[in-house]
Design goal:
60 residues; 80% helix
């Protein structure tokens, strides 16, 4: 089982690269048990979407 620190690191790295299967499964398993890391992952996704919308808006 990975720690919260490792799960956070992998969540952020997943934004830049595709994670190998073992790392993806480790993060998923951790998210099943850890509400805080699951919430952090959703926040990262929200920020990614907001940034994409802002880039689209600023180019118009």
């Amino acid at each position: 089982m990975i720690t919260c620190r490792e799960a956070t690191r992998l969540t952020l790295q997943a934004e830049d690269r595709s994670l190998p299967l073992t790392e993806r499964l480790a993060v998923r398993l951790h998210h099943k048990m850890c509400t805080n890391c699951r919430r952090f992952s959703r926040q990262v996704e929200l920020m990614r979407q907001a940034s994409a919308r802002w880039r689209q808006y600023s180019q118009e």
